[in-house]
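Bumping with the actual sequence this time:
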Amino acid sequence: MMEIDSVRVESSLWIGNKRYRAFLSGWYFSWTEIDKRNREKKTISVPVSEVIGVKEGQVEIQPQKKVEDTDLDFTLFYVKRGSKGNGIGAPRSLGRTQFCCPSRDVRDQWITQLRTALKTHSPSRPHRLLVFINPFGGKKRGKQIFHSLVAPLFELAGISSHVVVTERANQARDYILKKDLTGFDGVICVGGDGMFSELLHGVIGRTQQEAGISEHDPTAMLRPCDLHIGIIPAGSTDCVCFTTVGINDPVTSTLHIIIGDSQPLDVCSVHYQSTLVHYSVSMVGYGFYGDVLAESERHRWMGPLRYDYSGCMVYLCNRSYPGLVQYIPADSHISSPRDNTRCLSGCRVCSESKERLFPHFDSSSSLYSTTVSQYSSELEGEWVTVEGRFKCISLTCISSSCPRSPKGLSPSAHLADGTADLILVRETNPLGFLTYLHRHTNTQDQFDLPFVEVHRVKAVRFSLPPGEEEEEYEEGDREIQTSAERVLEDPEKLSGGNTAGHSQQRFSARKERGNVTTSRVKRRGFVCGPCCAKPRSISVWNCDGELLPHTEISCRVHGQLVRLFARGIEDSAVP
């Protein structure tokens, strides 16, 4: 017998030869084992919001699809939480439970009630997605990952997808900027951080175009984006996915997309004078991080090993660079990069920041119907100036954690509080700098060193100290400057994202234009090697894996500018 009222649905069901009492009440579907003496034993409870689908009969999806239509059975698919895996977050998998009902009527009623509850409690789930696959990134397994792991789950959840396999750099960005996106609930990248950067630039650019806002105006208040971005990790590092989910696992990310999880994310715009150069989420780095990327481009034939090799070579060169850094500090009473907290799912700081970033937001309407005039001013405050010689300068909107560095560049950084963390590493001896780098891989505080300082900021400007510009400029540097001016004539060349696998074509073109020259990043160190050349006073900027053609830049944080299909890292203590 099945009991149905406006609040609760209940009946006896069987799993195998065991009887259960099943309940659908409020936001949860639960089933409790009943022993032969009618005593209750173990209860399993699944949030309706995490139900993937309900199918008639006996249905299997993995390892291959198998359907046996029976009159009394239905199969429930849901998000199953696993124990902590290879990350700082727990993986998710597809849970499957097959129920047998006392009659077909009871089965049909259960299926109807569960599907109705699913629509009621999960109104924000996507129905149609635009998917971009980078077949070249990482281990070149993008297509395999999508077709074997992602597509079957989308089909199970009733999600249709239009798939584009990219063939060139910035194809995904251009598609989003120019094609009709009507009917799509989100865009998905199957690739690495470079592919995500393409989608980021496309979605932000499209939104500002439609709003009539110039991205090239450094003072413009950018409109938050409606279209969600999803990341299926298939790259080499997948830093953004790791930081926002806690693990690089395609199934976990797919399940977050299916159930419509939504995580706002801060974005940093990078300008050269009055021209947009790039958008950044994970890192804008000068000095060591820029030199490593520039050096690695000379060794692309080595594959991913080139980053370790280049890092070692650049470290041995022991470079430091003069610079003038200016920043607007964030409110230190709200949060601090040294407060030893972690930005987890449901973060209080990020939640309260919505009211500060969108003071006229009406909770009964969409966040993204908010007009630009209602967007709060982010540049209140006085500029603070720091001058000196630096081993590296880093700006990150997120912790930038990854499997090799679980804490990341700034462990206490927040995903959506409208700020970024500025890390200044002053000139020091090689052993001291090695200690700083090593602490990214362990539990020690990388900021607890006398030559390191960190600030939570809203905006940053970088320039060369007076006299440095001309002091050591030589033919190679002049070539770089001239090429940068040529690129400025075509702003389109400056606003593209980086795509792993596609970047070889782009860097080859850049070398032809003179944007990246090996002579620029060579300096004599204390050992002989590929970097033993005349010392240079200028490094290059590494912006999310893309070399920038300018030295003097300005950066500004745009709070909660985009939204991802994610929910942040969930506390491992929560079951």
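The tokens above came from a reply further down the thread. The two ends are 33 Å apart (CA to CA).
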